[in-house]
Amino acid sequence: MKKNSYYDLAKQKYVEASLQMLDHFxxxxxxxxxxxxxxxxxxxxxxxxxxxxxxxxxNQVAELPDVLMAEGYEIVHSFSPYYSNETIVRGSFDxxxxxxxxxxxxxxxxxxxxDCKLSINSDESEFKKFIExxxxxxxxxxxxxxxxxxxxxxxxxxMSARGNRNVV
Length: 168
Description:
Layout: H1 5-25, E1 29-35, E2 49-55, H2 58-62, H3 64-70, E3 74-76, E4 87-93, E5 96-104, H4 108-122, H5 124-138, H6 144-161
Parallel strand pairs: 2-5
Antiparallel strand pairs: 1-2, 3-4, 4-5
């Protein structure tokens, strides 16, 4: 798969944004992962940068909104139904939006998210299916809701093939 020009910039923004977040919460953060469309080297579209942040406990996740709003971040209430239990915040880094998805340590879904990313990144047929969904969304052939349903079905199929039946 061919690397796109936006990937290097997204990767740089991921590092910059992650370091800034770690500066605020370094004692609470266990892991940071670049996920979502901008994390695929072959994705040829400019997307928000999604970062999965794993914190030590659920209590720490619950305490984030007030602190982050004071730092200038926006709390995102409608992101993806899959992340309805997580705290999502958005910040701007130059002309790019960065979404931080905060999840407590021990959540099964972390592994599902990373497994799906690995599958899409390493399996060209899965990648092509994902690209086609993104294209249909960007070309307005699918509504956001239709896109989410089809993306969930794709991820369900990926996880089923890997022996895990939860949906990302």
